[in-house]
Amino acid sequence: MIKIAVDLKGADRPQEELLPGAIRILREDPSLYLYLLGDEDVIRPLLEKSQVASDRYVIIDAPGTVSNHDNPAEAIRTKTDSSLMKGIALCKSDPSISCFVSCGATGALFVSAIMILGRIPHVTPVLLCEVIKDDGTRLCIADCGANIDCTEDRLLTFARLAKVYMEARGTENPKIALLSNGSEDSKGNELVKKANKLFREAEGLNFIGNMEGTELLSGPENIIVSEGFAGNILLKSLEGAAKSAVSHAVKYAETLPEPYRQKMLNGLREVYLNYDYNSSGGAVLLGANTPIVKGHGSADADTLSAILKIAGEIGRQDLKSRILQEFS
């Protein structure tokens, strides 16, 4: 069985609205075993009503909640009864848990992951996020917000972690590019120029050079590497631009007669879902001793279901062992 710890609290929606996503994935994937952290008096009646076999999960009562308003360091010290901190502690005590899933407070989650779970030796944790390219394949952005200031050595670590992740997700020998303001090796700031040289000298990387933002969704790369400042702006710009374009197209579709109106709206919905954070899942933090999948705070049951699919794949492919082997 693939063991996953699930924090059901701390998101914008209450735990009873997220829980159906966990119930759905338990029905769809018989290989999963879930540790469900939240208020037992809320969770248990809903699970019993769902008729999911009780040997597929365990409920861990966690009356406390960590919010985005809490100071991460203080939350670690004072909110030990919260679902987030209990989940992190559980992963620390049980190495057989493949992944921790949460849609709660981002700062407290990442700080506790490093301070309590600990880092893999010589590895700087990276935050990965996937978007869908024009051809339907996945593009992994590394880093998308965890590391604002970086050295070229850290960027190389991000590339190696993203390579292991994408291979586990089914992409063989993924093509890796550096985010830059031009495709030539001479382009970019000093960090990009140093990283370009380091990437070309590194063994085991399928590095294809620098890449501009205009080519990201149509180019050959599977992974784009940058420091977290530019990566986060890139991710949110892609999401915002796609939603704006779809919004304009929807206005046009509303003027069409049937059946063209509905056909176009259906197609636009598919495009929107490719860039909707809630539908696609969440970001993945690698480099701590347990992988973490972080969903958006506005997550719903569909989001949790999508995140748990990613977490299940992480466990199925034994991503922890793959990372340790890459950096051994």
Q: Would you kindly provide a brief summary of this structure?
A:
The protein has about 325 residues and is of the alpha/beta class.
Query: Can you give the mean pLDDT?
Result: 92
Distance between the termini: 26 Å
CATH architecture of the largest domain: 3-Layer(aba) Sandwich
Taking the sheet with the most strands, its summary is:
11 strands, mixed
Q: What percentage of residues falls in helices of 4 or more residues?
A: 40-55%
Number of helices: 12
**How many domains?**
2
Write the CATH homologous superfamily of the largest domain. Isopropylmalate Dehydrogenase
Major sheet: arrangement of strands? 3-2-1-4-11-10-5-6-9-7-8
Structural class: alpha/beta
Low-confidence stretches: none
Beta strands, count: 11
| Secondary-structure element series | EHEHEHHEHEEHEHEEHHHEEHH
Short descriptors:
328 residues, alpha/beta, Isopropylmalate Dehydrogenase, eleven-stranded mixed β-sheet, 12 helices, 47% helix
Tell me what the structure shows.
The chain is of the alpha/beta class and 328 residues long. It folds into two domains: 1-123 and 287-328, Isopropylmalate Dehydrogenase; 124-286, Isopropylmalate Dehydrogenase (3-Layer(aba) Sandwich), CATH 3.40.718. 47% of the residues lie in helices and 18% in strands. The chain is built from twelve helices and eleven strands. It has helices at 15-28, 40-50, 72-78, 83-93, 106-117, 152-168, 190-201, 228-253, 260-275, 277-280, 301-316, 319-326; strands at 2-7, 32-38, 57-61, 97-102, 126-132, 138-142, 175-179, 206-211, 223-225, 282-286, 292-295. An eleven-stranded mixed sheet has the order 3-2-1-4-11-10-5-6-9-7-8, sandwiched between helices. Strand 1 (2-7), helix 1 and strand 2 (32-38) form a beta-alpha-beta unit. Helix 4 packs parallel to helix 5 (106-117). It is globular, with a radius of gyration of 20 Å. The two termini are 26 Å apart. The model has no long low-confidence stretch (mean pLDDT 92).
